[in-house]
Amino acid sequence: MPSPHAVEADLPSERRVATLLGTLVALTVVGSSAVAVAIPVVREELDLTVSDSAWIFAVFQLTFAVATATFGRVADLVGLRRPLVIGITMMTIGSIMVGAAPGFGVLLAGRVIQGIGAGAVPVLANGIVGTRFTGEARTAIYASITAVVSAVSGSGPVIGGGMEALLGWRWVFAVPALGILLIPSILPLAPSDRGQGSFDGIGAATSALGITGFLLLLQAPSAGGVVGAVGALLLLTMGPAAAWWIRREPEGFIPQSVVGNAVIARCAGVAALCLAGYFGALFATPVMIADAFGWQPLQIGLALLPAAALGAIGSRVAGALTGRFGHFRVAGTAAAISTSTILIASAGNHVLPLIVLGLAGGSIGFSGAQVAMTDRVTTAAPEGTLGVTLGVYNMLQFAGGAAGSALIGGLSDLVSLEVALACSAVLPATGAWLAVSGHRAGVATQRALAEAGS
Questions:
Q1: CA distances (Å), 130 to each of 27, 87, 125, 263, 360, in order?
Q2: Alpha-carbon distance 221 to 166, whole Å?
């Protein structure tokens, strides 16, 4: 993937780029957020248990997270175009398989292919922006894309509920197949510059299996003890193996210059923790509303629309303020908003506006941190590693999101859902602390450089 400084003179319209890439990323989000309301119908039609239906989410999240780093690294070597076409095509094929699945086995296989293909989209979309634009233009496009993602993610229950009511559950799963229609418009935006080196298969395999182990452990509370045991085995064996291989091959699948970069690590941590807070609220809020008021999925989705709108607005505001106040300060503020509103929602005592406020704040935390941290990671990526840097960054975000919903699900068997939601506020609170420490570290570095220059 070429350097972000290699920007062509005849840049495409910022609005056009943001619209096309935002729509593409939004289709991958629908593949996750809108599916929730269709699960009860799927269970009834295919005669599934609760444990079976949990895998409909698990395999998508698992393959999505693992694939994003792989596609990012491949893009560094062969350019953005071919991986992008492969990813969108796989997402389309998987979506059609799920939509036409005659049984549970084909449905799961389709979700695996759908998740692998969808994993290519965020990292490669961010890579297009990072290589085509710089400065305020790049930040503005990231903000626009995140606004679309936040709006679609928050509107997922409405989209899924409406489509299920009108067309049936299969169409909800098949929506990401529309991504194939965007290839002719998006392909010219993607640089085809080839990088140097070769693909590190051992590094990819050990890293992917280690991440798989971690994500299987997160799914263990709903999937059972066997899944947890497999996850623990993979994590304890492949995790150390991946770490050893990174030291042995510092320019391999996950370059040591990326994982050892303090700025990148801090950005990934902030973004992951804020996404975890948002996914936790997104998981808990509909259940809280259903328990309190007995509403159906479409009614719940309509009630949550204000949260989606505030998340979209929050990303725009974050993009506008990043250049003025700094990346970590903006992300820290967004994380603090998420923390406080989640706590308010947990103490809302069945008051609908307060419950919705919790999801709105979580959405603001996710979208604000995403804009600021993605822009900062793009500038911090070592030369020639933008693709894998964005891949690792996105991978950690999605793992963080899974941790948020897993925490809520695990605690809800021990305490009330409101208490579980309150406990999850520690996630964005930790993100706020990381962001504050990142801002202070940046100020200290600038001061040291100024003193050295004088």
A1: 21, 19, 9, 17, 28
A2: 34
The residue type found at 53 is S
Tell me, yes or no, if the pTM score tops 0.70: yes
Tell which phi-psi region holds residue 255, choosing left (phi > 0), alpha (psi between -120 and 50) or beta: beta
Given this model, what pLDDT does residue 132 score?
A: 74
Amino acid at 446: Q
Under a CB-based contact definition with an 8 Å cutoff, are residues 116 and 63 in contact?
yes
Q: Any idea which residue has 């992300």 for tokens?
A: 331
| CA-to-CA separations, 211 to 74, 122, 171, 296, in angstroms, rounded | 18, 18, 31, 36
Distance CA 163, CA 173 (A): 10
Give Rg (Cα) of the chain: 21
Distance CA 302, CA 174 (A): 22
With vertex at residue 418, the alpha carbon angle to CA 413 and CA 421, rounded to the nearest 5 degrees, is 85
Rounded CA separation 88/100 (Å)? 18
135-173 burial, b for 16+ CB within 10 Å, e for fewer?
eeebbbbbbbbbbbbbbbbbbbbbbbbbbbeeeebbebb
pLDDT in tens, 253-305: 777 888 788 889 899 999 999 988 988 887 778 778 877 887 776 777 788 77
Q: Which residues of the chain have pLDDT under 70?
A: 1-12, 36-37, 39-40, 49-54, 58, 150-151, 153-154, 192-198, 218-224, 297, 349, 384, 387, 409-410, 412-413, 448-454
b/e sequence 410-444, b meaning 16+ C-beta within 10 Å: ebbeeeebbebbbbbbebbbbbbbbbbebbeebee
Reported as a single tens digit per residue, the pLDDT across 366-400 is 888 988 998 888 888 877 677 678 777 877 787 77
Q: What is the pLDDT of residue 8?
A: 44
- Residue-level pLDDT at 434: 94
- Taking CA atoms, 145 is separated from 16, 232, 298, 316, in Å, by 11, 36, 25, 9
Do the Cβ atoms of 185 and 370 come closer than 8 Å?
Answer: no
Q: Which residues contact 37 (CB under 8 A, 6 or more apart)?
A: 157, 160, 161, 164, 172, 297, 298, 301
Quote the Cα angle for 57-272-239, to 5°. Answer: 75
Question: Helix (H) and strand (E) counts for the chain?
Answer: 20, 0
Distance CA(440)–CA(144), nearest Å, equals: 28
